[in-house]
Amino acid sequence: MNANAKTETRKTPDTLRSARYFAHDDLRSFGHRSRLRQMGYAPEDWVGKPVIGILNTWSDFNPCHGHFRSRVEDVKRGVLQAGGFPLELPVHSASETFLKPTSMLYRNMAAMEIEEGIRAHPIDGAVLMGGCDKSTPALLMGATSAGVPAIYLPAGPMLRGNWKGRTLGSGSDAWKFWDERRAGLIDEKAWNEIEGGIARSFGHCMTMGTASTMTAIADALGMTLPGASSIPAADAGHNRMAAACGRRIVDMVWEDLVPARILTRPAFENAITVAMAMGCSTNAIIHLIAQARRAGVDIGLDDFDRASRIVPVIANVRPSGETYLMEDFFFAGGLPALMSRLTDHLHLDALTVTGRTLGENIAGAKVHDDDVIRTVDNPIYAEGALAVLRGNLAPEGCVIKPSACAPHLLAHTGPALVFDDYPSLKAAVDDEGLDVTPDHVLVLRNAGPLGGPGMPEWGMLPLPKKLVKQGVRDMLRLSDSRMSGTSYGACILHVSPESYVGGPLALLRTGDLVRVDVPARRIDMLVAEEELERRRAALIPPLPHYERGYGWMFSRHIRQAHEGCDFDFLETSFGAPVGEPSI
Ligand code: FES
Ligand code: MG
User: Fold this and answer.
1) pLDDT for res 466
2) Whose CA is nearest to atom 2 of ligand 1?
């Protein structure tokens, strides 16, 4: 048992947060109780029972959470079985599909709503229902700051896509077939069929994209029931897991098992290890840094690079792997099975929501298919999923996913072809007269946290049509944006500081040589320092994107990519802790 578990102070009905709202003989409590009765509840429903807030990210705008509207009933069933009082709280859905300009712009807004929603309501413990990319970090960041016991309920991956018997993966196959379509190799009928087959059920993207990565991270952090992240959304086991979350959170309230006891540095190191072994989305870096800072744990880019050098990619799931998807990963044993192969790299004594340690949770877990979850001696990629590069183009770092790019590009020098905005890049790559060779380094700037704004997932810059027609399927690409976890290719991302705030990427010009050396972890523009100084002096600061509203606040408080892109005032180190609201 983790040492922290022994320090627990058990809650009693009198010391519940909700008792302050409901248990007193005063006008305030009278008002709250009368309003519970207005909803048809009686004292038998609430007296002496923990109020479990079920934070539901269901929305018609979020296909990945389509099942949450009914799945919440399973959670309520579990809460009732364990003697709690379930109340549902709808929160921001963070739909990856429909939020523009990018869901990342709204991750922190969602996290604020979640933190304040938990704090302001009479919630003793929270079930966090999420899964689509940004919803997971938003829920965990908010709940960490709110500080009440919380358990994460991952949406689960959708079923495998299918087109004429061919397995389709979210994102990855869309990009792949789109390149084919642009090259004239796929007709409209086939394209239409693919559109109908690529997303066959509710649940989040079933490749190893940001969603699968972040839910696995929640699992590895100890914030979910063991292995919950691997259960497909449409599997009956998902309903059973949801009910079990409901039962467990009630006990967590009595045990006062708050996130701070689970989210320690060893837990974050476990999450990084698992992320690497999964061949994770590059977005994981930003979200994990932000989550760690909420927990007061200092995690940085170098922690990822260090882990990437010793943890092999053993989850053979697309896009790092070639064949399998999350459903296959589940049948191969899921996350506990994967972790059973990484015990040398994991802190097995880390406490989890079960009240037991990670090691206890995964004891006896077995891999059922050695091709889907490889042994560490037979990985799909010997070094980890990510590499952090630094140099005169990115003094604070940038990242690349070597496992997803053509090997000959890992050490490459080529002339830059620079674009200041996405529309001009898009127009240029479709121009078959574009002066470009496979040796060029395609560059997009003004696409970072402030410049995007919101650091859109533009980082898998489209290959020039001319090269695609020549059969080129990868080239070096460089930007201060992010890329979807289902993307692939030699894409260097998250250049920090970003060009919009005057980072050195702003000084690069078309024709300058860019040298990338992944084994040496370097990225440089081969331009003399005096010339860079001249260019720096001539830089004109860009106009602000927003003059009012949320964007205005975002612009003033967003951190850079290497710091996790949280708002400065939301980090734990900012100011005194927020106390309980007066009732
Ligand atoms: Fe929701 Fe991919 S769109 S997880
Ligand atoms: Mg995504």
Assistant:
1) 93
2) 205
Which of ligand 1's atoms lies nearest the C-alpha of 484?
2
Closest ligand to the CA of 486: 2
Rounded Cα distance, 231 and 225, in Å: 11
Q: What is the CATH number of domain 387-538?
A: 3.50.30.80
State if residue 211 touches ligand 1 by the CB under 6 angstroms criterion. Answer: yes
Rounded to a whole number of angstroms, the CA Rg of the chain reads: 24
Rounded CA-CA distance 1/359 in Å is 9
What is the per-residue DSSP string for 66-135?
TTHHHHHHHHHHHHHHTT-EEEEEE-----TTT-SS-THHHHHHHHHHHHHHHHHTT-SEEEEEE-STTH
Spell out the domain ranges in the chain.
Answer: 49-159+201-362, 165-198, 387-538
- Nearest-atom number in ligand 1 for the CA of 204 is 4
Q: Which ligand ends up closest to the CA of 484?
A: 2
Q: Residue 57 CA: which ligand is closest?
A: 1
pTM over 0.90: yes
DSSP for 494-515, written as a single string: --SS-GGGT-GGGG--TT-EEE
Mean pLDDT (the chain) is 95
User: Residue 395: is the preceding peptide bond cis (ω within 30°)?
Assistant: no
In this predicted structure, what is the pLDDT of residue 4? 44
At residue 191, φ and ψ (nearest 5 deg) are -60, -40
For residue 205 and ligand 1, the question of a CB distance below 6 A is answered with yes
Q: How many whole angstroms from 458 Cα to the centroid of ligand 2?
A: 11
What is the C-alpha to C-alpha distance for residues 475 and 509, in angstroms, rounded to an integer? 18
Q: How far is the CA of 169 from the centre of ligand 2 (A)?
A: 12
pLDDT, tens digit, 9 for 90 and up, residues 162-175: 999 999 999 888 88
pLDDT in tens, 447-468: 999 999 999 999 999 999 999 8
pLDDT of res. 8: 60
Q: In what order do the strands lie in the sheet with 441-444?
A: 394-400, 387-391, 522-525, 513-517, 411-419, 441-444, 477-479, 491-492
Measured over the CA atoms of residue 81, residue 85, residue 86 and residue 92, the dihedral's sign is negative
Confidence of residue 18 (pLDDT cuts 50, 70, 90): very high
Residues of the chain with pLDDT > 90, as a percent, come to 88
Asked if 149 and 258 touch (Cβ cutoff 8 Å), the reply is yes
- Cα(583) to ligand 2 centroid in Å equals 40
Q: Return the ligand number nearest the Cα of 102.
A: 2
Q: Which residues surround ligand 2, an ion (CB under 5 A)?
A: 96, 133, 209-210, 484
For residues 312 and 383, the answer to whether their CB atoms sit within 8 Å is: yes
* pLDDT value at residue 402: 87
Contact by Cβ (8 Å): 203, 159:
yes
Query: H helices within 153-235, ranges in order?
Result: 172-182, 188-197, 210-221
Among the listed residues 359, 104, 141, 124, the one whose alpha carbon sits nearest the alpha carbon of residue 263:
141
Whether the CA torsion 512, 518, 520, 521 is positive or negative: it is positive
204 lines ligand 1 (CB under 6 A): yes
